[in-house]
Give the backbone structure.
Amino acid sequence: MNTLDQLVYCSRARLNQEQADEQIADIVHVSTFRNARVGITGALTLRGGAFVQLLEGTPTELDILMLHLHFDERHEDIVVLAREQITRRAFPIWGMTASRPDQRAARDLDRLIAERSPRLESWRQAMSAAFTA
């Protein structure tokens, strides 16, 4: 039986500020293609110079993806904040999506980032709100 994990990580974004939108679009484009092949879904947002990403997939594929991120020059100081086994996906139809959350969702994400919250449910709620707003 294949198990399914969900994780949230934060990293400091190393983006050229004048080209940030284009760089994020590139991340989304490449991630959508690659992750669809290996069954990873999730959501990506940029908050105050930090990437926040919620990822879902098999433990092995998530481990491989996290290893690849450590070699991606657009990320530094990558920290997995929460990870656990799940029974169903919160983001089943999304490959990778960048969002600009509304004010309330942005506040929730900023608080979770500042706290470095290990509570996956809190991240799930905040990311879901950010992408449905």
User: Anything to note?
Assistant: The mean pLDDT is 87. Residues 20-38 form the longest helix (19 residues).
